[in-house]
Design brief:
By secondary structure, the protein is mainly α. 95% of the residues lie in helices and 0% in strands. The protein is built from one helix and no strands. The longest helix is centred in the middle third of the chain and has 86 residues. The N and C termini lie far apart (128 Å).
């Protein structure tokens, strides 16, 4: 084989090997990008669900706080009635 033929054969082999490696890298990057897109969509869904849950917790907390305030008012009224009945009763 002549030097020119060896050179051309080396160039062709290098081109083939380079094309295979480039295709392999492209394919891996494509698969990785698809997986990342799926994960990002899932994260977005989780963030939306998280926001909904936080809103529900906030609403529950507001209801709980108002109920707790009403219970405290009732407790104060009951204490006042008990004190009044203690002072009104003969000793």
């Amino acid at each position: 084989m002549t030097n020119a033929a060896s050179t051309y054969l080396g160039i062709i082999e290098g081109t083939i090997i380079g094309a295979v490696i480039s295709w392999w890298i492209y394919n891996r990057q494509k698969k990785t990008a698809e997986i990342q897109d799926h994960i990002l969509c899932r994260i977005k869904e989780l963030e939306e669900n998280h926001g909904d849950i936080l809103k529900k917790l906030e609403d529950f907390d507001e209801k709980h706080e108002s109920s707790f305030d009403l219970i405290q008012e009732l407790n104060k009224k009951i204490d006042a009635i008990i004190k009044k009945s203690d002072t009104d009763s003969p000793q």
